[in-house]
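Re-run with default settings, no changes from the original entry. Doing this only to confirm the output is reproducible before filing.
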Amino acid sequence: MVMAKQFINIRYPFQTSPEGFFLDLTTTTIDAVKSDLQHLLLTEKGERFYLPDFGTNLKRFLFDPSDEKTLGDIEDDLKVTVTKYLPGLTITGVKLYSEDDQKGVAIRVHFTIGDGIFSSSDFIEINV
């Protein structure tokens, strides 16, 4: 018997589906979590109707100095937001960096899903 492909949620950033669906869908838990996390982090607080607290304040930090205090403030903001909206996920580290040939700053967010024997760790990078 052939097993049907299992879809979990919508892939973020949004893109058309190669299977013919309106939007591309994730098929693994880690891809679903990465999509959810990226969507949460790139949504500005106040941007979403009926959930004004959904998202982060990353753009607020854009012109702040790239120092330990700013990094700590960003990490605190991300941890509070992730705890509220993605409770099965734990932020384990945040790193800021920029390359000379790029305009803007990139943020690498390391995270863990689950706990104990069934945990999985990964990271996402987003450009601000």
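Helices lie at 29-42, 68-85. The two ends are 46 Å apart (CA to CA).
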